[in-house]
Design goal:
Length: 306
């Protein structure tokens, strides 16, 4: 994927709260210090392994995903940007690296918003990709407002469109679009610096490759060449880069299907290195190409997550 040009990267502010460079993955990325990028006049991306977005209105603010396992650090980063109270925390999906700070902001008066399916998942124990089960997040952080259909959420001076989508990364995903700012927040529907990570054979086992592709096309139909796109993990991206990424996903599915038809094993398909010359992801992220191809192979072979 090409590197982003002036309209995106010259917006990066010097609000660095640590020394780790953008895209670095030292140790546990969720323990690194938070980096802040100003996306527009009132929107900020907050990053520490995964991403949140802060929208500052005239008297209040909205936080898209609370994401961090250290919510006090996130609250500190927010306070460095604005002293306005957080009216809403909007969760794009249920994974705790995007919901871990919910209870902290609920305790400060924020209302938590999600889709009904995400709210259900947030209130249940969760299983990670290693098969390890964790209890739900603090009950105080469970969503109290849910929307199953596209809904406008507003505060004075700012509004967003909350757009539930079909099962894709998992069930209960939603996109968030800021029409005035022309910014689309995808949560984990997209990782700009790695290949897709979705709950196909792990976690809830409710994500689907085809569903994720359809949501990508839904997103592309909503945006234009000037839209800034916030991924759940990785740096800011745009329509041209997203289009290239989707083309890669469609092409590699065709190639994996062809190898399955030839009777190739999962390891043989992984060893074929179908993504060796791909440049559709930003550099510096996790090298998950083999894991992605393995997940896609099992999905197409068994139907689990296809």
């Amino acid at each position: 994927m090409r590197q982003l040009n002036r309209p995106l990267w010259l917006a990066v502010t010097a609000l660095m709260l640590g020394t780790a460079p953008a895209g670095a993955q030292p140790g546990n990325p969720f323990q690194t210090r938070i980096q802040t990028v100003q996306i527009s006049s009132s929107l900020y991306q907050l990053s520490a392994g995964s991403n949140a977005v802060l929208a500052v209105g005239a008297k209040e603010a909205i936080l898209i995903d609370s994401l961090f396992f250290n919510p006090d650090r996130l609250a500190e980063a927010v306070r460095k940007i604005t002293d306005k109270p957080i009216r809403y925390v909007v969760n794009t999906h249920a994974h705790r690296d995007h919901t871990g700070g919910n209870a902290t902001f609920a305790g400060l008066g924020a209302k938590i918003i999600a889709t009904p399916a995400a709210a259900k998942r947030i209130a249940e124990p969760s299983t990670n990709m290693k098969g390890e089960t964790s209890p739900p997040i603090d009950r105080a952080g469970w969503p109290t407002i849910t929307y199953a259909k596209p809904t406008t959420i507003s505060i004075a001076g700012e509004s967003l469109r909350f757009i539930p989508v079909q099962p894709s990364h998992m069930d209960g995903d939603a996109m968030v679009f800021f029409p005035r700012q022309n910014v689309l927040v995808l949560g984990d529907l997209h990782h700009s610096h790695e290949y897709p990570v979705y709950d196909a054979q792990t976690g809830c086992k409710c994500g689907t490759y085809d569903g994720n592709l359809k949501v990508y096309h839904q997103a592309l139909a909503m945006i234009d060449d000037r839209t800034k796109v916030v991924a759940g993990h990785g740096g800011l991206t745009d329509k041209a880069e997203l289009t290239a990424y989707v083309a890669m996903l469609e092409d590699v599915r065709i190639k994996v299907r062809a190898l399955i038809a030839q009777g190739k094993s999962k390891q043989e398909v992984i060893d074929a290195k179908l993504l060796a010359n791909d440049r559709s992801v930003h550099p510096g992220g996790p090298d998950n190409a083999d894991a992605f191809i393995g997940t896609l192979y099992v999905a197409l072979k068994t139907g689990l997550g296809s």
